[in-house]
Amino acid sequence: MTYCVGLLLKEGIVLLSDTRTNAGLDNISTYRKMFFFEDPGERVIGILTAGSLSVTQTTLARLRELCDDPNADETTSILKAPTMLKVADMVGSMLSRVRADVTDKTQMGQWASATMIVAGQRKGGEMRMFLIYPEGNYIEATPDTPFLQIGEHKYGKPILDRVVTTETSLKDAQKAVLLSMDSTLRSNLSVGMPLDLAVIKRDQCRVAERRRIEAGDESFRAMSEAWSNALRDGFSQIEL
């Protein structure tokens, strides 16, 4: 399983993913689930993945191959697409085709499934964020719901519902997604470290910050302990 979350704010975009992939209790591996397609200053596209590793890796490999094609144009390469909406269309179509191919070849049925979060901005355009479903259709983050989640999302959703708005600063947004991940890590062993965190600032069209958080990271541990203490203190102060 996995957990990935993206926030779309007035100041920019914050993305966070874990790296755990498991095929049974005794087959646990670490794979990156956050990827970027970038032409710094012109366009940046971040993709978070959850689900079948064969589906997500093949989808990303084919998207990358099309971007690297010297004959690529706006109909084939997400780095040349005219809008982020068109990027979402292209990623969705590729995901749907790969899912069908893998299902047909392996007879995996419903297990050959994956979802993606696609977020970014092109020069002169607006920042946008989409959740791409296995069938290729998608929904978009809005001012009313400025975050999207994929994977094991239920444990980390309450804090996002309570504290995140489009006005949230990038600093507070990073804290929110990390605490959302901390809640998930505590409640589901199929989600695990290390974590990948990235920030895209409005109109820069590049990845502004990128960080790998390992299992022994002291700042993350301190944040986790502070949050646990705050919850316990708040709980004890509430009258029944």
Kindly summarize this structure in a few lines.
The protein has 240 residues and is an alpha+beta fold. 35% of the residues lie in helices and 29% in strands.
Overview of the molecule:
The N and C termini lie far apart (37 Å). Strand 11 and strand 12 (207-213) form a beta hairpin. It is built from five helices and twelve strands. The protein is globular. With 240 residues, it is an alpha+beta fold. The strands form three sheets. A five-stranded antiparallel sheet has the order 10-1-2-11-12, with helices on one face. The protein has helices spanning 53-68, 84-106, 157-163, 170-187, 218-237; strands spanning 3-8, 12-17, 20-22, 28-30, 34-39, 43-51, 114-122, 128-132, 138-140, 147-151, 195-201, 207-213. The protein has one domain: Glutamine Phosphoribosylpyrophosphate, subunit 1, domain 1 (4-Layer Sandwich). The longest helix is centred in the middle third of the chain and has 23 residues, at 84-106.
- SSE order in H/E notation? EEEEEEHHEEEEHHEEH
- CATH evolutionary superfamily: Aminohydrolase, N-terminal nucleophile (Ntn) domain
**What is the overall number of helices?**
5
The helix fraction, in percent, is: 25-40%
The side-by-side strand order for the widest beta sheet comes to: 10-1-2-11-12
Strand content: 25-35%
Say what the CATH topology is: Glutamine Phosphoribosylpyrophosphate, subunit 1, domain 1
Inertia-based shape: globular
* Integer count of domains: 1
